[in-house]
Amino acid sequence: MIAKMNLCRVNNSSTSKLIKVRNFASVLPNEEYTVTPQYPPIQDLSYLKRLERRHEETRESIKDVKTVEEKQIRLNMPKYYGFKSYILSEDYIPYNNLPLIQHVTRTHLIVDKELPEYYRRVYIDELVGKTKADIEEAISIEVEGQKRLHEVIKEDLPIHEVENIFSSSISKQINRIIINNLKKAYPHLLDVQVDNDPRVEACWYAGGMVPPENIKRYREGREWTKEFKDLPTDRLMSYEGKVNLSLRTNAPLPAFVNYSEAENPDFDVPFFKYDPRTVGTKTLHKRIVNVPGFWPGDPNQFGILSYHPRGHLHTRERFNDPQEHKEALHRQGILASFAWLSAQANFLGFNTFNDITYPLANQLVITNGQTWSFYAYQLNTMLMHGKYIEKNPKKNICWATPELKLYDNINNGKVEGFNDDVLKVLLKFYGNKPEKRLGLNMTPYLRHKEKLVADYEDDEQREWLEREYKFLVSNRPRLVEMDEMYHWEKIYKKDHKTRFMDKKLRPFELLKKPQDRTLNDRLGKYIPRALRPGLPRNKGRRAREFWP
Amino acid sequence: MSTRWYPIYQKGGPQLRVFLPNFWLKLIKPTTEQPANIVQFSCSMQMTKFDIKNYLEKIYNVNVVDVRTRIAMGKTKPDPGKGYIVKEEDEKIAYITLPKGEVFKFPDLFANEMKPEEERDKALKEAKEGHNKFLEKNKNRPSLPGWFNI
Description:
Mean pLDDT of chain A: 92
CATH class of the domain at 25-97 in chain B: Alpha Beta
Organism (chain B): Brassicogethes aeneus (Rape pollen beetle)
CATH superfamily of the domain at 25-97 in chain B: RRM (RNA recognition motif) domain
Strand order of the largest sheet of chain B: 1-2-6-3
InterPro entries (chain B): Nucleotide-bd_a/b_plait_sf, Ribosomal_uL23-like, Ribosomal_uL23/eL15/eS24_sf
Distance between the termini of chain A: 45 Å
GO biological process, one term (chain B): mitochondrial translation
Helix content of chain B: 10-25%
Oligomer: heterodimer
Number of strands of chain B: 6
Region (Disordered) (chain B): 130-150
Shape of chain B: elongated
Radius of gyration of chain A: 29 Å
Distance between the termini of chain B: 76 Å
Number of helices of chain B: 2
Order of helices and strands of chain A: HHHHHEHEHHHEEHEEEEEHEEHEEEEHHH
Number of strands of chain A: 15
Number of helices of chain A: 15
Family (chain B): Belongs to the universal ribosomal protein uL23 family.
Order of helices and strands of chain B: EEHEEEEH
Helix content of chain A: 25-40%
């Protein structure tokens, strides 16, 4: 009280503020008091729990971001120069990679000659004969009836590239033939959008793996983080796809099994606790990019089938292990299915932190024309960061067939030993009819009015967001690259202080951390003076920015 | 494979019977946790992945599935006498993948040796015992110094 009185004597203007506060106090009592005392929830105030709550809050706040593109920008917000990402390439499969991929995609794998029971409802038997003749002809023409560019110019391509070229063209031919033959019986194929060589990329966080050495050292260096130096850290997984062909429609495929099956405890997923780099995964600095082969706003945003090459298997023949060969295929099938579906889910307003609210399904084929593997995948959850890797009861499910041979060999333009059963499986994938999910809000986390940036009416805002989004997902580096510490500086300035008299001008000497620069840590675009008439010289220099 | 300078053979000279290659592998304990089928080696800088694979397969009969290598930079430190910065040699590290299911456990070389705490405890115990023995010996001769003996 005495302090307040003194304040009034020194500064007369603060008197009114103090009086105002007193006035409020006299107005509120009825609302302020209740019969039974109501306390705020008791929160654990330990460092770790506070950190977790802060992360949870920022991650939940992504749900409120209005549009698809803005959500992607928001995900990228923490890093101007990109995140350290663990690169999961589709065509680079290190030895024994399946457990890692099952862990980071939370996938239960079911290998069986038969597809899931769901496919019994798809009848295609009478269409096999009709399609078979066309496919046989296409195969013989592809194999024997033409010369490819590398053969004409006598370029010596490695065997896996030759196989990929063949795989790409044969899958396009077979897809064309099947759609032409089946479209009468299955009219949904008329509306299918076919993408040739689409760009598919996806990013997600996976947890549960031991921290890298540098994080351990960092935690050991501070008193309050010492106790959990071995706590698992999240890692950003980045998928780079290699797709021959993808088919998509405006309605999703029905789920193969009930959504509640996702929590079935019988479905087990191997837990991989090691650093992915210990099994040959590489890292790169990249921005978070989710591209399912089309741009936001495309009405056909649900994938139904994709064809993938398998030439890369030739590059791992040195392992010389039939079991490993099979697992590599399953790894490709699981990873490609999960990543494509997860990229699609990102366009529906979900992301690695905001889980999907309904299952999504996908069908996938890995082929070189002769050998075929089929995968049916149901995406039930995308939450696998932090505590969710252990606590999330939901798992994704992948049904896989072993390698199947479509034909034995080709003799004088005739296909010998054609296997109808393999064709039947493929036709069943085409006969699986997508269905609109009635009464279900497919985009619960997108704003009703503005689902896409294109829906904004403000021209400047729309153009700015579009430009920013397209740059982020372009994978192009920044015009000015990140400040680096040169090696001589690390030795003579950082590790050993041999040049303490030098003027401190470099970013690391000025306590700047270029790697921690946030996406919005920059000035807006400069507007030339001539374009802002009527304004004072120092006003309106920078264009507006619309960070979500 | 050797880069050593061997004396040129002259007719009638002694046959050189010892061939010393400069290929070597040193098993090292990994700093980070690794799957049980991955083994870490330090090797001579000249060795390629193929050399490492052949070395282990041909000499030690180890089935090697995959080899990954990296070159770790040597540490820098001030020279003890002169104070300028010197750098240790670079080192090639090889990660060997064994077939699935095989388990390699880094041997505990000093299992029989005592830890410093154990050593300290043992010395303390011995000292206590000695002191008790001394007290026991002198309990019937109060107020006499320990050296007072016949």
